[in-house]
Design a protein that fits this description.
This protein is α/β, with parallel strands linked by helices and about 190 residues long. Helix content is about 40%, strand content about 15%. Helix 1 packs parallel to helix 7.
Length: about 190
């Protein structure tokens, strides 16, 4: 299987748990013979789109075209990100807005929902947070995760989308999570 691991933490410092989780998933997948490419958004220049015209007709920066090529190549996407202010970090959102342009992520149709060139791909979302995972799931209804799954990935035809929520990252021994994420990589789930 071809797997794209999107390390969605905007901070380039290597000590971040999301970076370690991305490496653990990629290593696990490679151990099982999968072909893996990693996109580390903290290493990219991602300009913010300011208008619909830019989104529809603007020139995609070269690094982001390379990221699109990786996403097109992949059968399975793994998006790893920290929960910031209850949502996806703005830099990851800017990345997704840039790469998920018409013609790549969907083809606008004359009637009904758009055709999806990305149909047939699957995804795994891994979100880290300081609060307990149960609180995020039941009290906050895992809002940002559901929005990303339904309004971005589902909209362009990516399914199934599985999820892993890692809570209490500052108070937990994260070695068990690195092992679990590595196991997910080995199973390509």
């Amino acid at each position: 299987m071809h797997i794209a691991v999107i390390d969605g933490h905007p901070d380039p410092r290597r000590g971040r748990l999301c970076h370690a989780l991305a490496a653990a998933y990629a290593d696990g997948a490679r151990q099982s013979g999968h072909d893996v490419r990693t996109i580390t958004i903290a290493e990219l220049e991602v300009p913010v789109l300011r208008s619909q015209d830019q989104w529809l007709h603007g020139v995609l920066p070269g690094q982001l075209k390379e990221a699109q090529d990786v996403l097109q190549w992949a059968d399975h996407w793994v998006i790893i990100y920290p929960l910031w202010l209850g949502d996806v970090p703005a830099y990851l959102k800017a990345f997704l807005e840039q790469v998920a342009r018409p013609g790549f992520a969907f083809m606008p149709g004359p009637h009904g929902p758009p055709a999806g060139p990305l149909r047939g791909k699957s995804a795994r979302l891994i979100v880290t947070m300081g609060m307990p995972a149960l609180m995020y799931r039941w009290f906050f209804f895992k809002h940002s995760l559901t929005s990303l799954r339904r309004n971005v990935l589902g909209f362009v035809g990516i399914r199934p989308v599985r999820e892993t929520i890692i809570g209490m990252v500052e108070a937990t021994d994260n070695r068990k999570w690195l092992e679990r994420i590595g196991a997910l990589g080995r199973s390509a789930r």
